[in-house]
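thread: overnight batch results

M.L. [08:02]
morning all. the overnight job finished for the chain we discussed friday. pasting input first so we're all looking at the same thing
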Amino acid sequence: MNRFTKSRNAGSSLIELLVVIVVISILAAITTIFYNGITQKAIVATIKSDLSNASHKLSVYRLDNDSYPTTNNCEVAETPPNICLTPSAGTVYTYTPAVGDNPQGFTLVSTHTASGIAYSITESNIITVYVPSVPITCPTGFIVVPGSAIYGTSDFCIMKYEAKSVLVDGVYVATSQAALTPWVFISQTLAKTKSAAACTGCHLVTEAEWLTVARDVLSVGANWSGGSVGNGYIYSGHSDSVPYNILAASTDDDGYFGTSNTAPSNQRRTLTLSNGEVIWDLAGNVWEWTQGQITGGQPGIIGQGYPAYPYFREWINLTANLNVISPNPFPFTTGLQGAETWSSSNGVGMISSSANETALHVFARGGAFPYSTPSSGVMALDLRNTPTAMYGGYGFRAAK
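M.L. [08:03]
and the structure it wrote out:
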């Protein structure tokens, strides 16, 4: 009996020991999770505080120097175009200015080296969780466009050239190539269909995508006649009457191809993006439909309809519906320094619209030849047409 009692007591002691071990393990796990949660919150708070302070310093730098710095290097003198941004211990900064001689934007990433937690901030002063961009692969004839926080776009692909029509198995297909002249006499409605068929995932370029490309090329000093953003004019493509026809494209080092012009004419047809990609005829040659549509609420001048010949007004002269379209098509929304004063003399283009219009109309972008040098430009906008309208000077471009 004594042996049985001793055996049962030993068994009970073992079970009790296991229970104690399990309880301790659970408590330890809860403590670890709680501690890790507090630690992570502390890391995030530190990173966000650092980024806010750095953004303020960058804003002050821009006010003093009319642009953001091109480098962040604390091992050399903190004189323009360099700045010294120092993160808290255990974190590192990655500073990337917008490409160009006069950077008008930046991305600053703060990464906690031990945990890998990372947040970023841009010139918009918005802090977000940093997600490394994944390189995208574009179809043949397309180029990569960097996304824009201003217009809510991620990196995407767009046709390098205006869409060209090629007959494939008895069906006309939209392609992007230097050869051939752009596909015209096509409505916005049909352009949507042909864009969707151009590749898997393709679509007619949206307004947000167009504005993303336009802002990007506007931010690159090499696209301006004076060599820096806002200095002189941005090139507006084939928009005069010589020659009196739509043009095919050529190699990127021949941006004046077919125009009978050479530098320093504003008729250059190539523009360079901040990532080094080159796009043809974003301004001039033919108008390009986007997916934009509007029923009433057009920007304009109160009491005035569409302007008489030459049909276009300066953006800076409009007084009605300045902030009702999303995304906002006005040059000032690019956030680029001086953009609120840019006009056709700066090459950004003009607008044809009516504050009195109540019917459904669609967006056409970029301008065209002939006789449209003042009105053509990367921000040019024509709101006179309906979804089924077809003309010889209107084409399109697909994106993905």
